[in-house]
Design a protein that fits this description.
A seven-stranded parallel beta sheet has the order 3-2-1-4-5-6-10, with helices on both faces. The protein contains eleven helices and twelve strands. It is an alpha/beta fold and 370 residues long. Helix content is 38%, strand content 15%. The chain has a single domain (16-369), classed as Rossmann fold (3-Layer(aba) Sandwich), CATH 3.40.50.720. The protein binds nicotinamide-adenine-dinucleotide. Nicotinamide-adenine-dinucleotide is lined by residues 24-30, 48-49, 51, 70-72, 92-96, 111, 115, 135, 137, 199, 201-202, 209. Nicotinamide-adenine-dinucleotide binds at residues 24-30, 48-49, 51, 70-72, 92-96, 111, 115, 135, 137, 199, 201-202, 209.
Length: 370
């Protein structure tokens, strides 16, 4: 299948030969983005904390330059960026989980807010840098627990420390876009376009984070145990990890082509029929791996957790012509399939999944495949 997918033509070939700094490359999303960028012919520089747990990147054998360091250490980060002189920065490094954010709010705010500030500050006055894509979350919005999707112009907020840190990161992004990377000064006082991507829960192979539904299910299933489901009625938007990544890459592509209208915040969520309750996702997981067993437990969670959170993606659909590629059934099939191959046959399916995603995107005439 590999030969059928011409990666060079994607995103109009803009990433070929580009130096791309990717923070958070050892994480779930970052590892998939590193894989995709290398297939696009980019020179990838990863900057993250060392991942001591089992993680996706270790199975990919990618040709990237990696530095294991902390974005809270401003001096080291700044020197590194000065040395690398990247063309574009994808900033994904963050403390990315809600529950640990209650246990360690200082780490969460310092990495997600001060860390983001450090990245922006270190990118100022670096002549090579043309674009920055910051990754936040659907949780950046003030959650009103209503049935409508949030639009990009709605209020930032966040009940728990993680969500609030992502709301803060968005405010910080808007401030830097106004104060230092203002589009009206573009190519006069500076040459950087700054955009942010807000996506919801993503799933896909290679995620083993704690307290995420799919990793919990597959880890338990691999050990022939039942997984405890505490919040079966919670509704979330579910999407494959490659979907928001196609959105982030679209932002980078347009900004590298000097499209100033893209320097803004963007929602990248699934179609409405992929907004499913946890219980329904579990059923779909079981359809793909019959060994999945569940126990429904009482929700003894002492911390507040959002129940209803959806994104309105009209802006990305209309202005970027970005659309999701896989429906919920394919998303679950690819995701559970990845772990089944991993646990039962020792196979890593990431490149197959990426190729199948790109070839389905071509069939769907996605704008970034033309
Ligand atoms: N996974 C999801 O469902 C999801 C949903 C919405 C938004 N996001 C956002 O996407 C981004 C990536 O998430 P993920 O799921 O890949 O998370 P992850 O936990 O798998 O990876 C986080 C990455 O950030 C790095 N990191 C954390 N703190 C750091 C620090 N202080 N200095 C340097 N590196 C640091 C880690 O080393 C790792 O590489 C995050 O910004 C997250 O908030 C994720």
């Amino acid at each position: 299948m590999e030969n059928l997918v011409n990666f060079n033509a994607l995103f109009e070939g803009v990433y070929k030969g580009k130096k791309v700094l990717l923070t958070g490359h050892t994480g779930f999303k970052g590892s998939w983005l590193a894989l995709w960028l290398t297939k696009l012919g980019a020179e990838v520089y990863g900057y993250s904390l060392k991942n001591t747990e089992v993680h996706h990147l270790q199975y990919l054998d990618l040709n990237i330059q990696e530095t294991l360091n902390d974005i809270r250490d401003f001096k080291t980060l700044k020197e590194y960026i000065q040395k690398v002189q990247p063309d574009i920065v994808f900033h994904l490094a963050a403390q990315a989980l809600v529950r640990p954010s209650y246990e360690n709010p200082i780490e969460t705010f310092s990495s997600n807010v001060m860390g983001t500030l450090h990245v922006y500050e270190a990118c100022k006055n670096i002549p090579s840098i043309k674009a920055i894509v910051n990754v936040t979350s659907d949780k950046c919005y003030e959650n009103k627990e209503w049935i409508w999707g949030y639009r990009e112009n709605e209020a930032m907020g966040g009940y728990d420390p993680y969500s609030a840190s992502k709301g803060c990161a968005e405010l910080l992004t808007a401030s830097y876009r106004n104060s230092f990377f203002n589009v009206s000064d573009y190519n006069k006082k500076h040459q950087v376009l700054l955009a942010s991507g807000r996506a919801g829960n993503v799933i896909g192979g290679g995620d083993w984070a704690k307290d995420r539904l799919i990793p919990d299910i597959v880890k338990a299933t691999a050990q022939k145990q039942a997984v405890l489901i505490r919040n079966p009625l919670a509704t979330r938007p579910w999407q494959h990890v490659l979907e928001p990544l196609s959105g982030y890459l679209t932002l980078g592509w347009k900004m590298l082509q000097q499209d100033v209208s893209v320097a803004d915040g963007w929602n990248f969520g699934p179609n409405v029929d992929s907004n499913l309750q946890v219980g329904d996702v579990v059923k779909l997981a079981k359809n793909n791996w019959n060994d999945v067993q569940i126990t429904i437990g009482k929700n003894t969670e002492e911390h507040h957790e959002a129940n209803l959170l959806m994104l309105d993606c009209s802006k990305a659909n209309k202005l970027l012509k970005w659309t999701p590629v896989w429906g919920i059934e394919t998303t679950l099939q690819k995701t559970i399939g990845w772990y089944k191959e991993f646990y039962l046959n020792n196979n890593i399916m990431s490149i197959n999944d990426l190729e199948s995603y790109v070839s389905d995107a071509k069939k769907a005439n996605c704008v970034w495949t033309k």
